[in-house]
Amino acid sequence: MSDLNDTIGHAILTGTDPADQLAVVRRAAEADLVASDLLQQAVHAARAGGHSWSAIGTTLGLTRQAAQQRFGKGNATESKSGDDSVEERWLGPVTAFDEMAELEIAGRLGWHTIGAGMLRHRVVRTPTQWEHRRVIWTGSLARYEKDGWQVGARAFPYLYLVRDTGTPALAG
Description:
Layout: H1 2-15, H2 21-48, H3 53-60, H4 64-71, E1 88-91, H5 99-108, E2 111-117, E3 120-125, E4 128-136, H6 142-145, E5 150-155, E6 158-168
């Protein structure tokens, strides 16, 4: 990791035209956000997989308490409903090319989109299967609402629509 940091740091300091320096800052900030999101997802997956805060903290070079404070309850990515019985998680990383196939699988297992971010979807689990649809964000939603669709997430230029099928979710 140190070699990678040194290489990138050297390239930034010596190989960047002053006119491009702000572009480098912008790209580095974008990379930081993506890496932070991926770390958050990885920690939540590890917790869902049964790993302790102590084990996660050790892996990250943090104390158990520091890891729990940074990634645990009360963090902005935790359940927005405030209901601990609601099962929520991030689905991703996904792209515009594979997200609908991933959401179709998740929907059969009872998960549906409640939010979308860069390369991921926030999903919540229910006892029933869900359908997902991505449409371009234009005009009225009435034509979708009459068919039972509701907005799961808005992520310009898309709307992610969800519809409960009423069919029991598959196990797994």
